[in-house]
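Annotated sample (chain length 396).
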Amino acid sequence: MREKSIAVIVVAAGKGKRVNADGSGDPKQYRQLAGKPVLARTINAFLALPSITAIVPVIHPDHAERYATLRLADERLLAPVVGAATRQASVLEGLKALAPLRPDLVLIQDAARPFATTTVIANVIAALERYEGALPVAPVTDTIKRSLDGQQVSTTEDRNQLFAAQTPQGFRFGQIFSAHMRASTIRRQFTDDAEIAEWAGLRVAMVEGDRDNIKITHPEDFARAERIISGDRQMETRIGTGFDVHPFEPGDAVWLGGVRIPHKAKLRGHSDADVALHALTDAILGAIGEGDIGVHFPPSDMQWRGAASSVFLKHAGDLVAKAGGRIVNLDVTIVCEAPRIGPHVSAMQGIIAETLGIATSRIAIKATTSEQLGFTGREEGIVAMASASVEVPRVD
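Output written by the structure step:
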């Protein structure tokens, strides 16, 4: 018997105004959550399941560049499609994009719910054997009051009959596509896809959800999401330091902090000799007890000859994430007489932040001279020192 094909629509077309009420900062689906963008976490939850055959993200028309920075790579991940003014219309765009594939089932997921577990997803899929639709729910535990004017209680609802809807919501593809097409012709906005299915006469099952399967909506939700990721684990902060030096040789530019800076010489080294990123990489590796840069990228290995040092830095950051940790802050000091570092600090912070998936506010870059003393004072080379603060699960 042929296994059913299962596609996923990840709805990420909103601007996240309630999280960024003042209009500043990234939309919530692109904000960092424990070192990784929310949207990347949401998509990866489905990429982790071999049963998923295709995933289509639906994004805001202004967010193409933001989405590209996620750098997600999987043959099942389709090119993003542009959403519409409402969530309902955006889902329809996702359904249209999947139509040529004709999947048997489709799961519709909010981008701002990064904690859909394997169990919850499996429960939804299993229910589609008997029902045309299914969604995870959580029982309502608070007493719910109804008011006609927002001031006086009119009645108290029976909470035993009330459930909070979550995503992913699953459906048989052809039926929900047809229901969405019909719904688009009437002047009514539905609150979720399950309501459209109900309106179309489809049977929708409820399956057990997860109280941690929260939708990030308000600023305080990020703090709760961080706690969910850390779980019951006790975290501890570790400090690592790094030091590196490279001499000058004939050339016309130096690489520092991932930025090419014109100069009367270049730095000599096996890679691009970026002394700042080398020191920073060693600091991160030291904080998690993973040796130094030479252990992971031996100078004797020719594949690293001339390599961009951002590759080394990213590897260190990936090891932190693999250990279940996060980078708290980074501090780099560059010692040289020339070139001038100040004009390039902002660009360096941006490159380091993008490489590690952290905010620029967590990165400090300083420069100083050695007052013309020693080899740096004689402009024979550059020194960099770095420290890294990393939070990781406590190991007794």
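Annotation: The radius of gyration is 26 Å.
Annotation: The domain at 235-393 is CATH 3.30.1330.50 (60s Ribosomal Protein L30; Chain: A;).
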